[in-house]
Prior knowledge:
single chain; alpha+beta; 3 helices; about 30% helix; globular; binds ligand K2U; binds zinc ion
Amino acid sequence: MSLRHILLHPDPRLKKVCDPIASVTPEIGALAEDMLETMYEAPGVGLAAPQVGVMQRLFVMDCVKDKDTAAKPMVLINPEITWTSDESNTYEEGCLSIPEHYAEVTRPARVRMAWLGLDGKRHEEEFDHLWATCAQHEFDHLNGKLFIDYLGPIKRQMITRKMEKLKRERARG
Length: 173
Ligand code: K2U
Ligand code: ZN
């Protein structure tokens, strides 16, 4: 297992539509393992493959936050949204590719997703609460969409300008 570098916005790779995964290979398994390790270390509750520079349709998530509850790491390959609730939920979202910026995003409160598991089988599950928000946030990443894309142009541009400054400062070391 190894930690992967998380790309920071703005980066053209974070705006691309990712490619489907043809088969669950040992390399995909290793990538998923690295992504889970990177997510827990960040820390975060989700991470999508394009955030670590892999332009393939895979994300991981574990939204268990209670330390007395067993972790529930999930790996979703070629995920599809099969149903969304009419009810909405507004959550103050962040993103590991846009650190220290948060904004309210409204999404369907519940969502059903179908995906290919590391076991090679098809899975389908309904998510609610933070799981639903996270799953939709990660699914957006696979289509090159960031949570700031739901904001107005002024706020989105302000965040982008601040991230450009942060990247310039980090590049100077
Ligand atoms: O995709 C990512 O950048 C991972 C996000 C996923 C996420 C964003 C918003 C709401 C839920 C999940 C990271 O986990 S951001 C850190 C974080 C941690 C706990 C709750 C919300 C955000
Ligand atoms: Zn994100």
